[in-house]
Amino acid sequence: MFQDRMGLLSDPNRRRALTNLLTRLNTPICVLCYLAGVAWFMGLAFEPFTLRTYMSENAMGSTMVEERFPAGERALVTAREFGAHKRKSGAMPVDWLVKTMQSRGLEVYTQSFSRRLPFPDENKERYMVRGTNVYGILRAPRAPRTEALVLSAPCSPDNSNNQAVGLLLGLAQYFRSQIYWAKDIIFLVNEHDLIGMQAWLEAYHHTNITGMDWAPLHGRGGSIQAALSLELSSDVVTSLDLVLEGLNGQLPNLDLANLFYTFCQKQDILCTIQEKLQRSDWDSVSGYSQAVQTMALMVLKQASGRPWGDHGLFLRYHIESATIRGINSFRQYKTDTTTVGRLLEGMFRKLNNLLERLHQSYFFYLLPSLSRFVSIGYYMPAFGFLAVILLLRALDLWVQLGALPSVTEDGVGVTDQSSSPSLVSILTPVVISHLTGAALYTLPVLSQELAVQHFPVSETEAVVLTAIAIYTAGLALPHNTHRFMLAEGTEQGWRVLKLVAVLYLAVLLSCTALINFSLGFILALTLVPVAAFVTPHVPKVLSAVVMVLLAPGCTLLYCVFAFQELQEAPVSLIDGWMLFLSVISQGMLDHALYGSLVYPLLALFIYPCWLILWNILFWK
Amino acid sequence: MTYVSLLSPVVCVCVSHFVLIGRTSAFLLLHQARAERFFRSDHTNNWAVLVCTSRFWFNYRHVANTLSVYRSVKRLGIPDSHIVLMLADDMACNHRNPKPATVFSHKNMELNVYGDDVEVDYRGYEVTVENFLRVLTGRLPPSTPRSKRLLSDDHSNILIYLTGHGGNGFLKFQDSEEISNVELADAFEQMWQKRRYNELLFIIDTCQGASMYERFYSPNLMALASSQVGEDSLSHQPDLAIGVHLMDRYTFYLLEFLEDIHPASQANMNDLFKVCPKSQCVSTPGHRTDLFQRDPGSVLITDFFGSVRKVEITMETINLTVPGIPLERFGGEPHTETALAYVDQLPVAQIIHQKPKQKDWHPPDGFILGLWTLILLVFFRTYGIKHLKHIF
């Protein structure tokens, strides 16, 4: 009778029943959760489950503005001039730009910067970068200089983006003659795209995060409220593409995308996201698959952690920004530069009406199309299901650890010793895994000189191949670490280690998913099954192969192939491999140049975690 | 000789005596009718308190609302010294205004209600609930300039116009505070008790505006609102060049109606109630006249919106030195003027504790008596009858 009054968990009988239930049903529930997580994610793009986008900011109002920008043709003439000067000087025509901006009535300043990359960038063919940014400030006629908006266009070394600079200068001249500006407008032409933008932003905000060498800015506007980056390489466009993903998967406020979309509809311009058109037939299979592809592309781009346009670096400073890219494909209906100029004019007039930073709409979302969105409240459960698997496994291990001492599996003589595995035997694999991770993080860049001397490879290849070598060398660790183990591993030992590993992975993935949902979700997709099923008792060879196939490195490889597939530019195996190598080098460069956190996360935390699980597989 | 005399009670009475002791009865009746029309309302001056309570550029239309009513009221004769204009934000000089120093009420910039002679008494952050209530009740610090005071007396007709963002039972001031309908009703009661108005017309153009006049309980109040509880008041038309909505629907049609009124107009309040029907306004305008003494049909628009000087031209001289002929001549009781006194602000007799009223003594209820007897009996029964003998 006394037992009946005990609580559910403190009653040993009931507790045993619960734990038995947990142990028995653990694997089926884990499998169910995994399938539920994947199904939830796939269901996110299904149109009835998404919401229509809408403008949340009251101050911006609707598209209630009269755009009168007339000078599209003149902008194209300026673009041709710019192109000619660029070809002549080989780099950015600084003097011509300064003179042109001054003639349009702006306050013009330049900034020089230089940076030595840790190793040469083979994609953009640069190693020692030196450049100049040119920017002109249009002061608001009647307002105090407390707030600013930025319109930027990159100065590309080849013949692209001339029209963007031309349109920027044309808009500068038109904006100068208006009196309704309440914020300063900064027209920025940055050289060496992201490196120049990083130098300008660091100087503007008086920070020095990445160790770049830049000259301080002589002229400054107020605090920047919003920024638009323009990429236009043709005289006429058939569609405008909106790029939102920024550094570390950060996204601008959804209101900026809504603003772009409403103005595209007003000006009757075709607008796309991920370069995919919108479809109205959501109940057909092809309509749904298009939405899934768009969302999957956004997830992959966000997971990569690199800024996909010049706007990506603004987001770190809490400045809402987006890149508008003009695309000229084979379509009959073409939009001329004047209309694109009017779109930008309308957007800037609406941003001018803002009284505070954009904050009313969502900061965390996924876009299956420009008119539909999925907010964080709807997509987080997909990751939650995957995280629950790890917690269930941890509970199961805890229960097993609690039950183990009562079952004398080991020999009588070692019962005392094996009742609690020594801390050293648990810590050793953890420490060694993390040391390997640290080696993976630091050695490739440090040892490139050494590698180049001994092998006939370029620096970039040396770095990448060193990284892969260290990664693969980690696979051989379990056989070697046993030498450092003082005692033989026990049944309890691997359970404790796995408990630690599973909880560590859960914390890691959850924290990652909070900041960058896509990265957390993709890593969880492959790592959670590994963490769930690995024990020393599964068939070794088969599970070793499966573990290698689901390792972070191979996940990256699959992502590369999937990305190419989704962009409708599938690659062969060899090309895919080369692309994979370049992705690794770009990841390391992003980390060194802009502070992207994907490479350190993978090298210092995810990879050691996977190594611990690998150790468990080969536990003796 | 011809006298043109300004309106004053004494002269009115003298003149009425003069009129009414005319020789022929027809002459009497005609002048009686004219006199009745003459004294239809007993107000002698007009005031207007026009308040716009919202700031920020996207609330342009509220400022335009207030300024258009200001313009009409000024045109119909109320001078700036009798208008208290409160605007919470400066739209004319806002950095985003493509036409600085103007506030338009019609699109295509037809009508600039800002004009060049606008006088704003409370501007920007001075428009607060406290300042508004102080203006109404007159409790202002001695340093307040006269232009910021509502110097009305008991013969003033006051027009109060409020616009902004509102809800069920409140009106939002400046994005940070609100005034409730109870506060407003109490303020009007204070005004009544201090004899600060003769009659008051209250117009409100906000969402759910009818909730603001629900709680009025003072006499001589008439109220109009642009929408009922649960309805939103909608804006009228956007101007694409300026980029904002210019006016609210109710005030737009009110302005159209007022543009037809001139100082001698005989339009009455029933016409005002018909302004902006549901077909034009989308919301249902409401009004409240139960606290008003006169019939709304006999109230002229110009009684509140204009400042009409009543003038009576006489052809005959009036002897002001001779006391007037007593009123018994045309029957009726002598109208003894009771001396008017203010209501006791501190009713001392009620506050200081008086001797409590003597309540009659009732013998205790039979039931209670019986109950006590029962209890006693039970007590003695339980604990033994021997105790009883100690009592008896």
From TrEMBL, chain B:
<keyword id="KW-0472">Membrane</keyword>
<feature type="active site" description="Nucleophile">
    <location>
        <position position="207"/>
    </location>
</feature>
<keyword id="KW-0732">Signal</keyword>
<protein>
    <recommendedName>
        <fullName>GPI-anchor transamidase</fullName>
    </recommendedName>
</protein>
<dbReference type="InterPro" id="IPR028361">
    <property type="entry name" value="GPI_transamidase"/>
</dbReference>
<dbReference type="GO" id="GO:0006506">
    <property type="term" value="P:GPI anchor biosynthetic process"/>
</dbReference>
<keyword id="KW-0337">GPI-anchor biosynthesis</keyword>
<comment type="subunit">
    <text>Heteropentamer. Part of the GPI-anchor transamidase complex, consisting of PIGK, PIGT, PIGS, PIGU and GAA1. Interacts with GPAA1. Interacts with PIGT; this interaction, via a disulfide link, stabilizes the expression of GAA1 and PIGK and links them to PIGS.</text>
</comment>
<dbReference type="GO" id="GO:0042765">
    <property type="term" value="C:GPI-anchor transamidase complex"/>
</dbReference>
<feature type="active site">
    <location>
        <position position="165"/>
    </location>
</feature>
<keyword id="KW-0812">Transmembrane</keyword>
<dbReference type="InterPro" id="IPR001096">
    <property type="entry name" value="Peptidase_C13"/>
</dbReference>
<feature type="transmembrane region" description="Helical">
    <location>
        <begin position="366"/>
        <end position="385"/>
    </location>
</feature>
<dbReference type="GO" id="GO:0006508">
    <property type="term" value="P:proteolysis"/>
</dbReference>
<dbReference type="GO" id="GO:0016255">
    <property type="term" value="P:attachment of GPI anchor to protein"/>
</dbReference>
<dbReference type="Pfam" id="PF01650">
    <property type="entry name" value="Peptidase_C13"/>
</dbReference>
<comment type="pathway">
    <text>Glycolipid biosynthesis; glycosylphosphatidylinositol-anchor biosynthesis.</text>
</comment>
<comment type="similarity">
    <text>Belongs to the peptidase C13 family.</text>
</comment>
<dbReference type="GO" id="GO:0003923">
    <property type="term" value="F:GPI-anchor transamidase activity"/>
</dbReference>
<keyword id="KW-1133">Transmembrane helix</keyword>
